[in-house]
Amino acid sequence: MPATEAIRKKLGTVPHKPGVYLHKDRFGTVIYVGKALDLRKRVSQYFQSSRRMGWDLKFNALVEAICDFDVHVVRSEPEALLLESKLIKEFKPRFNISLRDDKRYLMLKVNLNDPIPNFTFTRLKKDDGARYFGPFVNSVGLRNTVALARKQFNLRGCRVFTPGEADYKHCLYAHLKYCTAPCVGNVTREQYLEQVMAACNFLEGQCREMQGQLEAEMKKAAASHDFEKAADLRDLIRDLQDTWKKTEKFARVPYNLPLSINPQNDLAELAKVLDLPKPPLRIEGFDISNISGTFAVASLVSFKNGRPDRANYRRFKIKTVEGQDDFAGMAEVVRRRYSRLKREGAANVGQASSLSAPSEARRETFTLPRSLGRLEACPTLPDLIMVDGGRGQLSAACAELKKLGLGKIPVIGLAKEFEEIYQPGESKPLRLGLNHPAVKLLQRIRDECHRVANSYNAQLRLKKISESVLDEFPGIGERRKAALLKKFGSVQRLRTATLEQIAAIPGFGGKAAQQLKKFLAARSLSVI
Prior knowledge:
By secondary structure, this protein is α+β, with helices and mostly antiparallel strands. Helices cover 45% and strands 14% of the residues. The chain folds into four domains: 5-91, GIY-YIG endonuclease, CATH 3.40.1440; 106-244, no CATH class; 263-457, Nucleotidyltransferase, domain 5 (2-Layer Sandwich); 468-527, Orthogonal Bundle (DNA polymerase, domain 1).
């Protein structure tokens, strides 16, 4: 597809720098995410007619669908890799195949509150008081750097949480003098902590004297024709440089959600088909997410002027509904949301009326439309409410709004199978077709509701199942962890259990129970 005039102008503004590019279709949806060392050269290749003959069907289909693109400049190729992975996981573009799973780059952690701190590898960052390094794109380089740091600073490499004399007898790290053996009192805990802190400074790149030493050894080995050793030292220096290289972690994706090319037109079309007096400037959408009735949550997304308004997104845990009942869950969320808005609106009205001489700006803030009445016209009430689902979800939402005295707010339901729009009091739903601008706008709201609700549900499941503090206890398996949780019910109760109670669990003896108590005590201190 030859580049349009708008794309040609935009290509002229793309810098010759590393970064990430995002291709979008005519609806503003991200369809492909890629990285490049030179953004101008890479993005321009998609719009060169001479290159199309060598492309396969997939690339031709991608280029045909591109109507716009965005770029995000970063400082280096590792940062581009991290951001590309983050954006692909966020938007799941249909033309991307790699990086769509939940795998993350490797990180390094150390908890200084442990009895004998140890460096361990992880791919998941938790709020456990530990110190984290990374993520690192080059995992092999990171492992080599950690091995060098352990040897240089005499750190332990064993996986036992609190090693003792029995472990010392079979410990090669101690006998080879790689470790100062704090487990048998060769050094105090304070002295060993100083070794760990020195290693932390080294991993952050604050101690670069070692690089000079390695370079000198490499040159010496090369001069004596020991080229194999020189090559190993060269690779180790490169691993050090990769580990020390500063990269932005992108805790928050620096990119907005896909937008409509003409949101004002979409809003006007939506108002026309719903017979609204004016285009709905603020739309709120709801969705319920659960797995067989467990971890039931709901999402609320807000669109302002046809665009996502992330500052007003909300997430809910379903509190009063047992089992899988989407209708009751929708009723609870709508009731909680607009009961609160009514209370806040009443408080704002009372505050405004108590002012003796309100300014012009305050009078505008608390002006109440006559069509909705005094309490219904809270400034934060939407112009349209959309629920994900058919007549059942719509009826549940309307019933709750009517109880709250907000029955005049327009409400619709969007059923996914045929993208049917359900309206209160109408026997048949609207079928406008998949290419109608109003349907496209509602689809964007619905898809964003799905994304927020499903990500929250997954977050709760991950916290419940995968992020148990027991997973970090060395040597524990699924059976022993399940036996502990079955007996005590929670990690909090396990912390208060006696040694005898823990030792009575199958798979645990006196020594393992003591180690587990020390482990939980250290983790409770780190959280505090």
